[in-house]
Amino acid sequence: MLAQFSIVPLDKGASVGSEVARVLQIIDNSGLPYKLNPMGTVVEGSWDEVMELIRTCHYETVTGSDRVLTSITIDDRKGMQNRMEGKIASLERRLHKSLRK
Amino acid sequence: MLAQFSIVPLDKGASVGSEVARVLQIIDNSGLPYKLNPMGTVVEGSWDEVMELIRTCHYETVTGSDRVLTSITIDDRKGMQNRMEGKIASLERRLHKSLRK
Amino acid sequence: MLAQFSIVPLDKGASVGSEVARVLQIIDNSGLPYKLNPMGTVVEGSWDEVMELIRTCHYETVTGSDRVLTSITIDDRKGMQNRMEGKIASLERRLHKSLRK
Amino acid sequence: MLAQFSIVPLDKGASVGSEVARVLQIIDNSGLPYKLNPMGTVVEGSWDEVMELIRTCHYETVTGSDRVLTSITIDDRKGMQNRMEGKIASLERRLHKSLRK
To answer: What does the pLDDT look like over B16-42, one tens digit per residue?
Structure first.
């Protein structure tokens, strides 16, 4: 399945770059396929792989914060693989053009 | 922690009431505190309690559908309990009035 | 259409009750049907009614904060009215029981 | 401000590529900076620019569907520009490495 998530501490002020960087380091080390975008990170894997990663990232942020908001969106489609690349490639084929990504 | 979630199959047409009803039955049987609203369900518990419930509900829906979208939003605040009732009560005290809920 | 939304400032610390209370006062005064839940507020109206309200609430929060996160989820179904009450009532009829809400 | 959005019809079956492609064509023609990711599209602009675009995309999908779910997440930070590129570049500088995107 594909899952996008973002994790935000509420008590660190407007700049949360150092908290987000610690989470990105965990994601980058996890071995799961991922893509960072300006609003979150998309990962691909089984429910247990994905949720274990998000749990680790959430608690890394909880360690240094009194309140953390975590958002997760899952797209689980049977029989499809490598959707991280495949969904966008499929849209580009339909439109016969390259999209910004 | 508090978590709101919703689970939607994409291949069941505009009416997904029977799929949502099966999920609500699981939630109602789970023993976790919950509140249903018109856009999802809020539950309160530990990460593992909440995620085990959402996993069960997600896979109940996956059983009958080729594609399922699941959204989860978590609000994890240290040292607070019974936030299911407490957050709204606190707002009503601030505003000195009863709000629709 | 139904829309759930929540508005969170990032630079006010773990307690954002006073910011949320100001938003709730605007919603309560708007005249649109709404229901508050522990994770956000659901409103019912046309796109323009709903988005004008959310815009007003977002900018009320922006006034006092350097960074604001606003989440909106819309469920737009043709030919249905009073879904604020109707969706839950329909689920309770299917399950032949009253649900917590 | 930055906004990520996704628009999903519920009555078109598991494959919604043709509906999503029509929306992407509108976004690509809009002139607003955007980035497509596997779970949605991030755009950057003023509230009115962004919401007018999302409104157009939502109603393009409503035209052919009885039920449409639209999700929007807004990150509105004062005094920051070109955050579409800047947020990720800032994280890479912090971590002294290139991230997958």
So the answer is: 999 999 999 999 999 999 999 999 999
Residues of A in contact with D35 (CB under 8 A): 37-38, 100-101
Give residue-wise pLDDT tens across range C21-54: 999 999 999 999 999 999 999 999 999 999 999 9
**Measured between CB atoms, which of B37, B39, B91 is closest to C17?**
B91
Asked if A101 and D39 touch (Cβ cutoff 8 Å), the reply is: no
The question of ipTM being above 0.95 is answered as: yes
Chain D CB contacts of A97 under 8 Å are: 28
Which domains does chain A show, CATH number per domain? 2-95 (3.30.70.930)
Q: Is C97 helix (H, G, I), strand (E, B) or coil?
A: coil
Residue B30 pairs with which residues in a beta bridge? none
List of residues 6+ apart from B16 with CB closer than 8 A: B8, B9, D10
Give CB contacts under 8 A, 24+ apart, made by D23-28: D23/D57, D23/D60, D23/D61, D24/A91, D24/A95, D24/A99, D25/A95, D26/D53, D26/D56, D26/D57, D26/D60, D27/D53, D27/D57, D28/A95, D28/A97, D28/A99, D28/A100
Residue C22 and residue C68 in contact, taking contact as beta carbons nearer than 8 Å: no
- Ramachandran category for residue C76: left, alpha or beta (phi over 0 → left; psi -120 to 50 → alpha): beta
Q: What is the pLDDT of residues A22-52, one digit of tens each?
A: 999 999 999 999 999 999 999 999 999 999 9
Residues of D with CB under 8 A from a CB of A: 2, 4, 14, 17-18, 20-21, 24-25, 28, 33-40, 42, 71, 73, 75, 77-78, 83-84, 87-88, 90-91, 94-95, 97, 99-101
Banded pLDDT at A65 (limits 50, 70, 90)? very high
